[in-house]
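Researcher: First entry.
Model:
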Amino acid sequence: MRAMVLTGIRSMEMQEVPDPTLQNKKDVLIRMTTVGVCGSDVHYYVSGKIGTQVVKFPFPVGHEGAGIVQDVGADVTGVKPGDRIAIEPAMPCWTCDQCLAGRPHTCRNLSFLGCPDQADGCLTEKIVMPESSCFKISESMTLDEAALSEPLSIGVYAVQQSIPMQDATVGILGAGPIGLSVLLPAKAQGAKKIYVTDKLDERLALARQVGASWTGNPNHEDVVATVHKVQPDELDVVFECCGQQEALTQAIGMLKPGGKLMIVGIPQVEEVSFSISQMRHKEITIRNVRRQCHCVQPALDMIDNKALDVAFMVTHRFPFEKTQDAFDLVADYRDGVIKAVIDFPQTCG
C-alpha cells in the first residue's frame, strides 16, 4: 500500500509500505477515506518537532481520520466490515493507574496516531486500530464530519472541563479549527457572550457567522483593552487555542478575578511564561486540556443530532497524491484555509 511520509523539513514523499495486518483479537483493519490536516501535523512538517517530540524521518503523520472497516479481529463486536467509522487517534493501555482512574487521555503507555515514538499516522491507505478507537457513524453523517469529530471532541472536552457555560462570558484566542471547535459547543451550551481573536480577518468573519459576539485582530488593535471596554467586568473563562505566548499573556489580561484559563493550543516551544503578579492578584486558575477524554461519542452525537454544524470548516480538498500541497497551504495560512482535507482513492484493495 501507499503512505505519504515526512522525509525532512517541508518535505514529503509517497512510499510503498507493507500492508498492516490484524495482530490482536480486538484489532480493526480500516481503509482510509478522509484525513484532516491538523496544526500539530504541520508543526512536525515545518520544524520536525513539537516540544520534546522529535520526528525521526521518514515518518507518516496524520490523526484526524475517517474510513471504512475492511476486516476485524475475532473478538470485535462493535463494528463490522463495511461500516463507516470515525477514528479516535488515542490508543490507551486501559490498565495503568490513569486509565483505571478514568483518564485514558493521560495513559502512562499511550500511543497516539502520528506522534513520534508512539504510532505512525493515518496518511496511509490502510491502518489497524483497536476497536476502542473505532466509532461507527450513522448513514446521515458524512465522512468529513466523522473526521472533524476529532478536533470537535477536543473542543467539547475543553468546554466540559472549564466552567458552566450558561450565561458565561467566554474568550477564544485563535479562530482556527480548534478555536472554532471550542466556539461551537460553548455556544450550544449557553455561553452568554463569546469574544474571539485571531490575526486572520477571514477567520474572524467566519467566527462571527457561527456565533461569536465580538471579534478582534491583535495585529490591528489592543484586544485586551477593547475587551475591557466592551466587557468591563472581564471574562469568566478564556480558551487559548493558538499555542502562542502573546495569546497566553492576553488571556491573563482579559480574565476577571477568579477566572479560568484553558490552555488548548499546542505551543511549539517547551516553555511559556505568565505574569505571576497578575495571576496572583486575580487568583487565576490555569487548566491544561489534553486532547479528548471520553468526548468522541458526545461530539459525534452533537453532529448527528444537528446540535451544531462542523461542515463549514472544510475549506479545501486535496487528493492523496497532493498531500504536500495541502500541508504547504495550511502551513502558510493561504487562501483563507480553515481545514484542508485529504481524500483517498477508493479503488485500493
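Researcher: Second entry.
Model:
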Amino acid sequence: MISYDMDTSSHSRKEVPKLYGYIKDDSTSRFLTFGLLMALACFQNLSRTIGTALLFVASKQLAFGVILVEMILYHLHKLMRADYVCWVAGLEGNGRFLVGFVVHTVTKIIVDFTGMVHCRGAKLTGGALFSVMTVYSQCFPFMALVILDAMEVEEEENMMERGKLVIALAILVACWGLCVTGFFSVIKREYLWTFFATETAADFCRNTFLLSKDPFVKLMSAFDK
C-alpha cells in the first residue's frame, strides 16, 4: 500500500518525478502492479522468515550473529559512502546520526522481510543495494539449509523433510522470479534504472535540482531536502 500510494500520489510525482511515476495510469496496469507488489512482498517475507527459522534451528547464537553482522555491514556501507545523515532536513549535531541510525536500521529490516519497492529511493537503501538485498533474501533460506546440513543438526519435530523443503524453496524462488519479471514488464520502462541506481541521497538531490526544468521541483529539491 505504501509503495502504491506513494507512487500514484500526484504530489509525489510532481515533487520527485525521478523516483515516482513507474506505475502506469490505466486501471488494468494499476491493478496488475498492485497485485504483483503484494505477491512480491509475500514471497520475500516467506523466504526470509523460513531462512531465519532454519538458522535458529541450527544455532540461536549463529542466527543472532548473522543478523548482527548483516546490520553492521549495511550501516558501514552507508557511512563509507557518506550517505548516512545528509538527507534529513533541519537536523543538526548528533541528532543527525541518531535519526540516521534508527531510519537505516528500520529500513533494512523492512527491505529484508518485505522487499518494499518504495525503499529503493536514494534516501533509504538506494536502487542497486535494494536489488542486491532482495536477491540475497531469496538465497538466504538455501544458505541457512546448507549451514544446517553442515552442522548435522537433527530434524526438529514437525519440521519438513529436507528434500521436500528444498523443492518448496525452489518453487518459492521461481514464483518470486516470475513476479519480478511480470512487475518489470508492467511498469514504465524509463523507471527500470531506479532499481539499479548507485546515487547517494546527496547526488540524487543535486541531480534532481540540476536536471529538472520544473521550478517547483527545483524549489523542493533545494529547500525541502
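Model: Note on the second entry: The mean pLDDT is 90.
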